[in-house]
Design goal:
Elements lengths: L4 E11 L23 H16 L3 E9 L4 H7 L11 H28 L4 E5 L3 E3 L7 H11 L4 E5 L12 E9 L2 H16 L6 H11 L4 H4 E4 L1 H4 L18 E3 L11 E2 L11 E2 L1 H9 L10 E6 L13 H14 L2 E7 L10 H10 L1 E6 L35 E5 L4 E2 L4 H7 L3 E5 L10 E4 L3 H13 L23 H9 L5 H11 L5 E5 L1 H4 L18 E2 L10
Parallel strand pairs: 1-2, 1-3, 5-7, 11-12, 11-14, 12-13, 16-18
Antiparallel strand pairs: 3-6, 4-8, 5-6, 9-10, 14-17, 15-19, 16-17
Helix pairs in contact: 2-3, 3-5, 5-6, 9-12, 13-15
Amino acid sequence: MGGDVLVTILIIGAPKKWPEGTEISRGSHDMYTPATRPLWLSNGILYNEDHCNRYNHTLEVKQLQGPDFWPWQIERCNKFPPDTAKSGQRRNCFMGAHRENCTWYKLRWLLQHLVAKTAEYILFIDCDAIILTRPNRDTVSEMIATLNRDQIDMMVADEDWQMKPSTVGATNTGVILVRNTAWSRYFLENIVALQENRTCGSNEQTCFRALLGRGWGGAKEHIKIYSGFIWNRHPTRPAENWNTASDARIVHFMGAAKPAMRFIDVPENGACRDQLCLNVDQCAKQLTERPGRGNGLKFAIALTHDLHRAPGDRFRDVAVLRSVVAAAKTVGADAVLLVPNDQVAEHALTSEERTMLESHGFKVVKVGWMVPPHLHTSMPNSAQCARKKYLLLHVLGMEEYAAVIAIDGNVAIVGDAKAALQCAAQRKLLTVQSTASPLSGGFLAVAPQKGLVQAALAFLADTELKNQSSWSGAHANGQFTSAQCSAGMLWALFHEEEYAQQARAAFEKAGVQPPVVHELDRCLWGRQSRDDVGCSASCDKVRFAHPAACPSKVT
């Protein structure tokens, strides 16, 4: 055979010719070139390329002219008169027939590969499905191992994610793994013949379900249906964020969910969960391209300081201060410094320091606590977590601003920050990983609400830690940097499945909806000095970085 495994994606364009008297507009039915593919399609192909390249699988992306109409389809649609300005029945009939033919074509395409003996295993995925790249998890090989373990010839998934009894075991043919055997060829040869004979439903999925349900040709012994939650998951149903579901392997942006694929971004080797980083610039366009939506919004870029050291050199990193002020001016935002007030601070801010900060362009804001009140007894103590780490929580409540970016004092802004602010303003929370933690305290962008602070405080008061005063919980990497501090707490509140129930209770108690959470490519939005080997992006693309990572861009 030609190889062990082939992953194939099929893009089907318009038929060579639409029947006369049918007014079909050009556009979505044309043949795409790589340059004219819509963004959702390009992103999906990039993600699947990324997975296959990582694990040395062959990926085929094939675009074909749409198949010709069957005589019985032409006869059915010719019953309608030629289209007019007021009537498009003939057009709608032929477009429906074209959609039917496209769905059937995937089975014909699979059969062609089996007959040609292209590979021992063929994985067909719809062009709106994405193979997730979990850390050190080769999804394609895992599917093959599952098929071999269960000694079957074909692997499909159901739609149990709909959470209805009727959809458990209801096959979705957007993902099909086939072993190249005589039985697989026999089954596909017979099923594709049924469309021409009009004896098996309007589309291939309906027919597939019917034949499998009847056990036609020994199908129940050769085909097994697995959970769609894992192998063919819808991105928005159920309501839980699929991106935090550790069992998901393939996500299928079927039907009306396709537009969401425009906002995913292949990282420059900087990990996001499942490699699905948010494309910040595309997200920002959702605000800027709608008239009036982005007008008059106030933004801020915030730093925090615990005033732990005595006055003198505690604001010595002038380069970072300048980068914050310069970036804030560029995007029309306030540069804000959050510090504990005089009653809380170990060494109160002096008038000279305040004058210096304000002369640089900072707005100084004093806050009333460093350690949140009413912490659960299992929470980290001051010896395990520096008090300054919880100052970050105050940023969540700065609701005089539409969006705020909070950064550490050792992070410099080396590129345009406005897109992150415009994206976060759409009720989002944007985070990055670090090289040693699933959530870095060095960058956070949020649409603030007082209720978010209240939810965080309720979470801290009511949640009992499960892992010896650490938020690391069941994270795949075990204990991680800042697991005891605000980074770990924010990870647990917004990302970690282990604390999902407590997080929902905290948001309900505060009477606020949680923001939509996304991860950004850390190589662009949280570049660290030791990232140079791991990140392929040049510093020209980087927006936020530790000064040593891109020293030429820090002044």
